[in-house]
């Protein structure tokens, strides 16, 4: 009871201090936990624990892929997208704002226990970067590239590697939606041959490479490789800033569940997509940043209690990623829990009569352990 | 070995476990005489083991637990409970989407609470009168007979579950189909309500044999 009182007191204090800035007026006490600041660049510690609104058209443009499935369902049910501003995201944004783009790209690894909000932190950072005009290379879940692949073709470029046309074409389509204007501005730097007859000349816009990958699905993985290479070569020049956002980066160094036709297991290096992505995640280029997330939920052959970078990346991955900035994501603090709970109440998501009482709230906090995913799952049927 | 299925093997001195928090939070002055005696008795008498379905959570509902138990197959309570919670969530999502898209004057008419919908749907599915087989002179007649509350609730739940298990496409999930059926029953339409009406009509048709009933 004491900490509830404390949380409300701090919230009230912040409300008074933020009334001077153009935040929500005091006639709607429930909306204390919302903020009208929808530009991530202006989020500060004052906005910690509050939910900010992203217009739906922007969601479709910036996040064609990448938002967690339950969050997408929530957007559809509530008809709006609200993301909570949390401390790890604010920390990352501060680092990005103060980073020197002439230096080699800094790697940030977001880690934490299951369901604490790592993917949402990544999406917050991606939103900030797209608002600032960076080119965002967002891979929604690297685990999808190492498991459940229906078609594995032998790559035409390099005999030992294997291609994944379906995953590559899906990714190219989403990449096109999120970065339309850059595809016209960036030009290729050398001639690329797609098979015997088709080729892309030097100096053509990158959009043509993407079109080629979408039209000829067989060469989609090679198209992805070309796109990544071009972006890496041209980003140090400074005409655009590049953000590489990879969710589930531990998939690049683990094992796969795929097998070749002679039933021998495939290791991740033999997949073109993974090979090219590994080259991207090395910090030998400048003019941007690399933000990655570890994820146990989609990972293969890793115990469910593993969440630290050491356990999930393995020795090889850890050595490759070695100088990185770790960003831990904890469970909800009491203030964030209050904020989430009152958001659900305001949106009529918690319909059970007892959920509106203090007892119900205490029970929700105890049962979920302030874990965002558990709270979401518990509040579903209530 | 005799398993205590219908009659309890406990010594009569054993007391039932008390789960409600409010009783323990009351200070001793507010307790009535019987409650004071009960508390003193609890200090000396042994207490029976609490069954796993008994919970002190504020969110438990006996009808929902009964329905979950009826949906359970081979003792897989975990699966039955998750199906139930997915059903409730699906109902809530559908109703909330309708609510947010409706114009202002219709917003009050849309019911979003999945528990209210569930209880109302069950009430709408309960038959008022049932049929029972009575044999007279070699022939079996279907005689209209009043039903107890328990029997009505059981029949409503049984019809809902059998309807959802049998008449659905192979690829539809149980929560989806149950959600559809519950919403239809809430609006007094759908196959379960039809079955109830058919039963009522049969009972009405067999009115003449009502005097065969002797209880």
From TrEMBL, chain A:
Database matches in InterPro entries: P-loop_NTPase (IPR027417), Ribosomal_mS29 (IPR019368), Ribosomal_mS29_met (IPR008092)
Keyword Transit peptide included in the entry's annotation: yes
Keyword Mitochondrion set for record: yes
GO terms, biological process: apoptotic process
One example GO MF annotation: structural constituent of ribosome
Record's compositionally biased regions (Basic and acidic residues): 25-47
Alphabetized UniProt keyword annotations: Mitochondrion, Ribonucleoprotein, Ribosomal protein, Transit peptide
Region (Disordered): 17-47
Subcellular localization, as worded in the UniProt entry: Mitochondrion
Pfam families: DAP3
Location (main, coarse): mitochondrion
GO cellular component, one term: mitochondrial small ribosomal subunit
Family assignment from sequence similarity: Belongs to the mitochondrion-specific ribosomal protein mS29 family.
Name of the protein in its database record: Small ribosomal subunit protein mS29
Protein species of origin: Orthonyx spaldingii
From TrEMBL, chain B:
Domain of life according to the entry: Eukaryota
Localization of this protein: Mitochondrion
Keywords, ordered alphabetically: Mitochondrion, Ribonucleoprotein, Ribosomal protein, Transit peptide
A biological-process GO annotation: translation
Family matches, as Gene3D superfamilies: Ribosomal protein S7 domain
InterPro entries recorded: Ribosomal_uS7 (IPR000235), Ribosomal_uS7_dom (IPR023798), Ribosomal_uS7_dom_sf (IPR036823)
Ranges where the Small ribosomal subunit protein uS7 domain occurs: 50-207
Pfam families: Ribosomal_S7
Cellular compartments per GO CC: mitochondrial inner membrane; mitochondrial small ribosomal subunit
Keyword Cell inner membrane: no
Mitochondrion in keyword set: yes
Family affiliation: Belongs to the universal ribosomal protein uS7 family.
Name of protein: Small ribosomal subunit protein uS7m
């Amino acid at each position: 009871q004491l900490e509830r009182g404390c949380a409300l007191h701090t919230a009230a204090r912040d409300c008074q201090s933020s009334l001077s800035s153009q935040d929500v007026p005091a006639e709607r006490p429930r909306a204390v936990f919302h903020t009208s600041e929808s530009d991530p660049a202006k989020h500060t510690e004052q906005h910690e624990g509050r939910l900010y609104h992203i217009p739906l058209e922007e969601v479709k443009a910036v996040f064609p892929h990448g938002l967690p499935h339950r969050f997408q369902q929530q957007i559809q049910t509530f008809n709006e997208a609200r993301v909570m501003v949390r401390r790890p995201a604010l920390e990352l944004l501060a680092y990005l704002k103060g980073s020197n783009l002439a230096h080699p790209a800094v790697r940030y690894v977001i880690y934490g226990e299951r369901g604490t909000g790592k993917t949402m932190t990544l999406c917050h950072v991606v939103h900030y970067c797209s608002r600032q005009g960076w080119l965002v290379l967002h891979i929604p879940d690297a685990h999808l590239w190492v498991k459940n692949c229906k078609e594995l073709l032998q790559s035409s470029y390099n005999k030992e590697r294997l291609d994944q046309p379906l995953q590559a074409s899906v990714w190219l389509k989403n990449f096109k939606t999120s970065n339309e204007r850059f595809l016209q501005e960036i030009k290729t730097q050398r001639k690329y041959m797609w098979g015997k007859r088709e080729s892309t000349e030097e100096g053509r816009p990158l959009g043509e490479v993407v079109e080629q990958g979408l039209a000829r699905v067989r060469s989609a993985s090679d198209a992805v490789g070309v796109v990544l290479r071009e972006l890496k070569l041209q980003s140090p020049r400074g005409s655009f800033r590049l953000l590489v956002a990879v969710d589930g980066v531990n998939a690049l160094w683990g094992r796969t569940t795929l097998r070749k036709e002679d039933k021998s297991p495939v290791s991740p290096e033999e997949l073109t997509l993974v090979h090219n992505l590994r080259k991207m995640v090395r910090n030998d280029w400048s003019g941007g940043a690399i933000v990655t997330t570890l994820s146990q939920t989609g990972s293969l052959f890793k115990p469910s209690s593993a969440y630290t970078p050491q356990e999930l990346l393995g020795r090889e991955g850890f050595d490759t990623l070695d100088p990185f900035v770790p960003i831990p994501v904890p469970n909800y603090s009491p203030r964030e829990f209050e904020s989430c709970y009152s958001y659900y109440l305001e949106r009529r998501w918690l319909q059970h009569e007892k959920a509106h009482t203090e007892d119900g709230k205490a029970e929700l906090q105890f049962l979920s352990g302030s874990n965002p995913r558990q709270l979401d799952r518990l509040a579903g049927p209530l | 070995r005799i398993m205590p299925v219908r009659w309890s093997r406990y010594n009569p001195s054993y007391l039932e476990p008390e789960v409600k928090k409010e009783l323990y939070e009351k200070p001793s002055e507010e307790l009535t005489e019987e409650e004071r005696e009960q508390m003193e008795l609890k200090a000396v008498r042994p207490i029976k083991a609490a069954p796993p379905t008994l919970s002190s959570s504020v969110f438990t509902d006996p009808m929902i637990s009964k329905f979950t138990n009826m949906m359970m197959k081979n003792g897989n309570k975990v699966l039955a409970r998750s199906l139930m919670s997915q059903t409730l969530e699906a109902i809530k999502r559908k109703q909330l989407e309708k609510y947010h898209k409706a114009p202002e004057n219709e917003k009050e008419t849309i019911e979003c609470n999945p528990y209210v919908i569930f209880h109302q749907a069950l009430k709408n599915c309960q038959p008022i009168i049932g049929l029972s087989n009575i044999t007279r002179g070699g022939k079996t007649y279907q005689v209209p007979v009043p039903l107890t509350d328990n029997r009505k609730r059981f029949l409503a739940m049984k019809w809902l579950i059998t309807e959802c298990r049998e008449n659905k496409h192979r690829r539809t999930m149980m929560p989806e189909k149950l959600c559809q059926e519950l919403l239809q029953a809430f609006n007094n339409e759908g196959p379960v309500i039809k079955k109830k009406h058919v039963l009522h009509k049969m009972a009405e048709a067999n009115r003449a044999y009502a005097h065969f009933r002797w209880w």
